[in-house]
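Below: protein 1.
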Amino acid sequence: MLLHLAAEFDLQRDVGPWLAERGWAAALDTSENSSALRVVNVERNGKIIYTWKGNQRDTHIGLYDLQTKENEHLYMFERDLRIISCSVNSERTLLAVSFRQYTEEERVSRLLQSVSKYLTLLIEIHPVNNVRVLKAVDSCVRVQFLYPVEGRNTSTESRLLLVSEDKYIEQFDICVVAEEEHKVVIQNSGQLPRARVADDLIWAQWDMTEQRLFYIVPKESRCTLKCVQFYPDENFNTILESHLDISVTDTRVKLVNFGYDDCQDQDVTSKSLNLRVFTSKAGGLCVCCSLASDIPDVVTYSIYFLHKGYSKTFTVSLERTASHQLKDVAFLNLDYYVAAYLPGQFLHLLNIQHPDLLCYSLFLTGEDARIDTLQNGSIQSPLMSTILDGCIGRIYAVSISDSALLEFLQKSKRDSERLAALHCALLCVRSTADLEMKIIWWISENLSTCHSFDPIQEFIIASLYSRMCSETHNLDKLLPYTSLLDWIGVIPGAVCTTDIISLPVLEFQNSKGFWEKLNSNLESVKYAEPHLHYHSNVLRREWQNLSEEQKEERRTTTYLRNIFENAKKVLSHLDTWDSEERLVPLFQEEDYQQQLLMGLMVAQLKDHLMRHLQYVGKKKIDQIVLDYVANLLNLVHRIMKEVWKRYQLHSCIFCFDERGSAAEFAVFHIMSRILEATNGMCMPLPPGFHTLHLGLGVRCLPLHTLLHYIDNGVLHLTETCVRKLLKDLDDTEKNEKLKFSIVTRLPEALGQKVRQFWNHPINANFIARKYVKLLLEKLGSRQCSRPISERLPVPVEFLPLNYLTNMLAEIENQGVHPYEKQDHVNVRFVEEAALKHTMMLLGLKYS
């Protein structure tokens, strides 16, 4: 099961023993009355209010503190009442209670038509003292105390929200004073001051954590969502307004998080508006709504991503089931995800931060969608990553199980499911070294089975995004989170339609936290968010141009010096992270091309961030960029390290006189895919990667395949590897063929450095030919003016060779010497090489 539930509170476990100790065991007998002991509210500070029936059928209200694990008796009514709503202030001096006095049948039978059906009371409970009637009406009323900022000193004023089914919400201001013996009483003996908060609403939801009120008012054929923010200074104001294209046929008021009904009442309200508003820490704002469907066995629900400016509507065909088993879709807030859950049918995890591509949302059915401990009744999400099961009075902390997610990833056959699971594991689940290792193992086994995406690219990009974006606000809008540009796949079992919606209007000043992040998200949408993400196209062009210009020596040394200085900082920064001996032989040599790419990436990414994060400061951006590129190199090394360990390879550089094992060939294949992945994203590799890759290629590949890989740029000839190959291999016929094939493919600059390590006539002949060619190219149209004699101790009577050597000697005397760093390569070297080669062809022995 993908969702892991841990019971943070259980009425039977946490309250039952306390009640039994005090002689209220009757409250635990649920056989006759399932609502004898039930949760009625959860306050902001984690305190849970519950009610139970006493031995004399009196009604009690208690409080459980999640932090101290202690129970407290708050109040008792000496009669059997149906508690509708209850709330206690943060100082626990006042208790607001709304209850039903009589049912309609009871009023008629007892001739109590003049008595109101519902009563709302304000009670002094420190100690129990006066009781004040706030409302005596025939419509249901809910109550909720506002909570000040946590840690604030005790206040002498409390504020209470009163929500009526008559479609209005008002706020009461209650001043209290402390009398003798710490007694706290309400100061005003007259009417309490009140203020109207909202009118004409048909739906309202209380956000206890952030002290926000969301409510909906109908407007012609549409609905308008509004949000009122309550502040610690006792003010409140409407901060958000958004138009929603939701048709409402049932005008009864639906209230969310204003107390909790048990599962019996849930059926009564199942036909009313099933809607939830969820926020995320990153500034996401979603409206989740389950829509009525005229087609049997079909469920339709919509998610309005207000922070993105579009909505997605999903239509799901259900498996055949008895009608009484079908319930409304339950919506759960998991921060990074919104979950749509229909027990026994499906569990849909929708990515809030990146909802544009469906492949980053998980749609589960069957056993994967089952949540064992939840009943098919009252499921609500009062807090982020929290589930309340009202039927059994249990509150769960909900999280995504990393083991279940990994199991799902391993058994998935569809690319969309693999992508969603991979991103969920890397971006949402708290990544551990063990989880990361298992993901790398899965990637190494499935490189050829993922057809629509590259798992190595996604691993690197998503891991970088996860590691970096928590550091700085708005960085998540500037760094790439995927290598994919689009996704044209579908969700099996669900049909999705996307609609553009109007962006919400915000009205706030100097507001921090969520509203600032939401406003930043909306601004990103206005300015075409996809174009804000860093892309490697510019880097690729600059790297290619710079590589070409370097060959022609056209770029200024100052610019190149800065680029290589950037690379030096990255490698130095990386060294401070890992002081242990590296298992994989990387970072042990210089790699000009990779350092060039490193330095360019630092420069390009710095320019990109400076354009959009000007308020952060240059020093901070420099640090972000260094961290990003160093983390990139470290991730490649991390992949190599886990692969190295899994296939039990040694850390030493390979010997070329042995053929590679099956394990080495598997690692070579993985390294080829890493190279392909990084080339596709124009990302640098750790210095030494190409040397290691070439070494494995020499050991594992037949010669024609090896040369094919070199010619097509899969394998790169490096000085370290070629030098070792030329020095370590003896000159058998097979090895001579390999060496000569390698030598002839070396770039000129590299060839001059390493050919001297192969003392063989073939190599000498090759060097001589190259030397002659270069000298003749330098000669141009100039003619020799005088002969130069005595090139060898014994004159050679071979006129063509004498003429050539004399001409070359004259060019040398003019100051032309292509191989200045190799003094032994001169005209005499050419002469000796020519004679040796001729004698060898004639089958004669040269002395």
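Below: protein 2.
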Amino acid sequence: MLPPPIIQTPPDSPSAYSPPPSTPSSPPHLTTNSPLDPNSPNFLNLPRKQIRSKSVPHARQVLMDMVDSTERNLDGPFRSILWQKYVLERPKVTELKCSEVRWFFQEPKQTVWTPFNGRDSIMLEIKYRKEKRIDLDEAIQTIYDETLGHYKMDHPEGSEDNSEEKPMVVVLNGQYKVNKENSRIDPIYWKEDSKEIRRGTWFSMDYQPLEMPLSDSIEKNHLQCFRNQMIPEGTTVFSKSETSNKPILAELHVDGYDVRWNSVIDISLHQKGNAILRYLWAKTTPLRRGYEREADWNDASAEISHLILVVHGIGQKGYENLIATNANQVRDGVVNAMEKCYPDEKSRPMFLPVEWRSSLVLDGGLTDNITIPKMSSMRASLNSTAMDVMYYQSPLFRTEIVRGVVAQLNRTYKLFKANNPQFNGHVHIFGHSLGSVICYDVLTQYSPLMLYDKYVTKSIDEYLEKNDSENTKEARKAMEAMKLAREQLREHMDGGIHRLLVTNDEQLNFKVKYLFAVGSPLGVFLTMRGGESADLLSKATNVERIFNIFHPYDPVAYRLEPFFTAEYKHIRPIKLFSQADLRARASYADLPLDVYKHYLKKLKNQKKAKNGKDDKAADAKSGGDDEIDEEDECDSDEDARSGCSSPRSMTPPPPPCDVAAANKEPKAVVKKGWFSFGSSNNNPKKTQSSASLQSQVQATSTEHIEVGKEAEAELPLAERILGSGVRVPHRIDFQLQPALTEKSYWSVLKSHFAYWTNADMALFLANVLYCKPAKPEEAKPTWA
């Protein structure tokens, strides 16, 4: 049954009214000259009770209320003006605008539908309507013409041969693409994480979308029955007393459901079935047309200002999507830190996973074939973790691993630039565990074959220096020719031998600003290669700065600063502030050098021994290494009671000994274990030999560094400990703070994988990337 039509143009005056001719679309039960017709000359003069009859549409009731609110003696023409104003201002039933439709996605194994943001929803709706050849509304058509013309969505479905050349419609921070059927979004940068999507036009009361076929059927019938009728305000036209006796203006039977229209906005969904069961269990579901908020084109993901490529380490075999989860965890932590600490920053970083292990062949499964079947679970775990390190140490498989990592890095960057052509920010690499070593080797263009080249050069020189009569002249002449050819190759070929050893397949197609080496064994790898400070940050390094971030209990992580000068082992790495401390927002560049407490104790005890006490007693008082390291992790009992993850966030603790008296320094120089940092020497000097370093340590402990009395009073203790050794150009080692409960073997094992959700590290990354320290008056400790 169709509802009575509402005539939208009232007469100029009731006395001058002439009824319009009847049309075939007029319902048979209500003629055009009926007293209940709004165009009737007696409509506004009807008794109020008759106007309130359920047979009268709600629009006329609202009109009567509006007229009654005016003065009673107003004449007919004014009432006609009110009617015209009401008709013109009220919305009418027409096709939904693109902004009124909302698209949703559903996580796997979840039942709740999550709405896309405004821009993603509009992009999906434009794609849907272009493919269905449905016209866009004026506002969205303007947006499409101005900003989305390069998507070429106007091409018909039959001409999709060049679909690869079209830009993808990407959503959710540009990490997912939409399939051709508009039913699913697939990840762009990783695998097996698809999500179902749904177009929402009709919704339940909690604005969860109905299934698309059901919504389309309801929408079609709604437009057929109520097109151009006025939409009243609110969610219902009936009072509480009228809910039990609503008229049914239209009804639709589809897909096991009954849809009933009691008014333009009173629509309900009923499940078909036995009348008794329907009475006992079935519930009536009120429906809503259009989403509760219109989609806004400006409601979009934040602008991307930094791209961070997250490279995994060991243990990813069989867990290809784990790095995607970890990358999102780091991104969520950084974004949360920025929202709290940098609310004025509108841009955001993008963390993209780089999964390289699954694409490698390596030994073709030979290791699994030779694995002993006993204790298979433990052996399988070792094969998927420790074997990756052994593969990388092998000259046979190392090249395959490096090329695989480089290929995935270049692929991810290329895809990102294709979907974000306007990006002009910096690119960084976040390498975890073995991944940091591989990325470091790629950035420094390291090749183990260079060691063999040096060995060959040395062997040739040693051969030619010998005066062995057994060496024939021909062999000596061939060796000299080989040496000459190698020298000419170095002189005339750009890059020399190194250019031959490092191919284009092992080089990145973009520049990297920062390398975040997290839980990295890079230090021990460099040690096995005989590396020095000049090798750590060579001129050929394609990276501006390295941050070596580690947990103190991580058994895989190593420091890097002692490569420059051995005495850096007595200097603490920078301990990151707690994310609850305002000073964590400031730069770490101006922090002073801190000396380990156990080394201060050692200096004090050696001082006592020099004054005539027993050396053994002094050594016993200095404590063992384990006890000393434990103490250096937590500065004082106050830190432990505070529950704060960073000792620096609390009041500087008192020293365990009178360091000033032990070293005969003014108290102004040494304050409770905190030491000022003098100007660092940025001009690297030649590293001292081990003998000279040992003698300098001895001089530090027994002679207090013979520098003269005046200079001794001015130099900070840390500077005197480092002596004339090579200084780091900037701090490299950064240490996270352990929780109070992290003192078990299990904590040691899991600390290597605890970086992804660490809030202190997330704020540190935000600090480094955006370099917006807090104002001086805000940079106060939390205890102040």
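The first strand starts at residue 102 and ends at 106.
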